[in-house]
Amino acid sequence: MQTLTKTIKAMTITDFGNTNVFKESEISKPDPKGKEILVKVHATSANPVDCKIRKGMFGEMFKLPAILGFDVSGVIEAVGEKTSDFKIGDEVYYMPRINGTPGAYAEYHLIEESIVSKKPKNISHTDAAGFPLACGTAWDALIDRTKIKIGETILIHAGAGGVGSYAIQLAKLCGAYVYTTCSSKNFDLVKKLGADKIIDYKKEDFVETIMKDTNNKGVDVIFDTVGGETLAKSIDAAKPFARIASIVRDSRDLPMASLYMKNISLHFVFVQSNRYKLDTMRDLIEREQLKPVIDSVLPLSEAAVAHQKLEKGGVRGKIILNLTPQMD
Amino acid sequence: MQTLTKTIKAMTITDFGNTNVFKESEISKPDPKGKEILVKVHATSANPVDCKIRKGMFGEMFKLPAILGFDVSGVIEAVGEKTSDFKIGDEVYYMPRINGTPGAYAEYHLIEESIVSKKPKNISHTDAAGFPLACGTAWDALIDRTKIKIGETILIHAGAGGVGSYAIQLAKLCGAYVYTTCSSKNFDLVKKLGADKIIDYKKEDFVETIMKDTNNKGVDVIFDTVGGETLAKSIDAAKPFARIASIVRDSRDLPMASLYMKNISLHFVFVQSNRYKLDTMRDLIEREQLKPVIDSVLPLSEAAVAHQKLEKGGVRGKIILNLTPQMD
After folding, report:
1. Which residue of chain A has the CA closest to B264?
2. Which ipTM was obtained for this model?
3. pTM of the prediction?
4. pLDDT tens column, B20-38
């Protein structure tokens, strides 16, 4: 008997560099074994970490050619012989691990079932694909690490961005008072998401605004999505014993003496895949307590355009890459 | 009627610099008002922070002439009219605030009652004066900030030192497994305090030893009392999601990408005065679960010698400055 090797379409990168490195390729269709499942990808998304990997920043993990993409919403097509939690046809969403294994810029994605969760029923694959990495990052930072709680104040940098727009919603759900920075064109968006005090970072000094508004006390929690000087400066807006979460890989020149004198806790957050988190997020989404925030939807063939938009900045929520536009 | 101005002896610093800056002086005896109490100092101690202030590192707080000394064990001599928690004759111990107000290198010390605690009954003033700042620092780092718990592993740098020797005891009381670095002459001491695995930092690479011993997992918690390269290198011995507490003011050049990839929480710890902490510490001391570790006892007139010993390094526990040798 003859075995047919099936191929699928994938968007690969064949080099590290600018957005020219994307190439539409044919790869072998993976075959799920053991506790793996094969998911038909309906939607994935572009995240800043994709751009960083594309540029070679995670070169210790990713070997060429590589497939980016760390969000999936899709339908189970096949299951390994030891799976127990899902069946063919289930709608699922999850975050592929960022560890060098193939991402989801492809028609199908192979994943171990332990980090997969049922997709929220009340939203489309397009909307669902915006949650796992971006909302998961905000979750790790605010719920698991800084443990923000009722009555506290938080500064969220870039509140209109892919991660920030979920961070505002989570902080509000926890009962916190939210300061956020954004440009004036996004005031409407962050206000709708629940931000209490909006700071136009182009016109205002955020430290000055916060210190004035808090009677020079500062905020309890800072969520840094920007790094560098913004993170360093933020320490001046922090209360003693404040918790700062940074999701930026290479922040340098932090004012160490200030961190010490203020007894700051600095949490470095590199988002992790975790089913429990997605299960809880799904409950919140289905209760309409947590809403998708979508900047734009593009076909996978325009991955390069998605990366350009991310790198240009000023994105409002998530950029989704949709593989089945006729269905979602 | 004539008012006599009473004077007391104090060891002041008249300049920032080396150990020559100490001067035996006469100062006015303070008069407690409101919620203040006046304590006859039986013993105080020399801590690394005294050396740093003496050198001018906290120049934004301390103006000259200044009185150092941030440990007190003594007896209440007088109380302000609004005090309610203590009476004349009570034996107390506490940590004067490090905020520019006078320290305790003096015959008497004025303090607000809110941060004062009853001295443990079963130990001398000499032994009690070793606890508030040093054990309080280990307490802030391990109990309040990194929240070490049963079954975890911890690396304690300089376990034979003033702070490290209390950190070992606290970590063991919490049920942790303790790795500690020290020089071979202090193996006996840290072993007696409860250290499980002792690393001779002069002969062994502590990262190598720990990674081998933990099957390349690393430790859950790191307590850094050294800073600089030691802190930077320690990150290689940390588990993903490890908590690191550093009590060093000016550590630079941390490997930020490693902190991020490992999801490290970095707690900067500048010890705070707090009665509750001293109350709990007293319970542990009186139950003989927590023991004094004393390197040496000197008269206050030899404060300069105490600083020289601290700066030379290799101290085993605390250096106490005793003002009433005939009594303790």
Report:
1. A268
2. 0.92
3. 0.94
4. 999 999 999 999 999 999 9
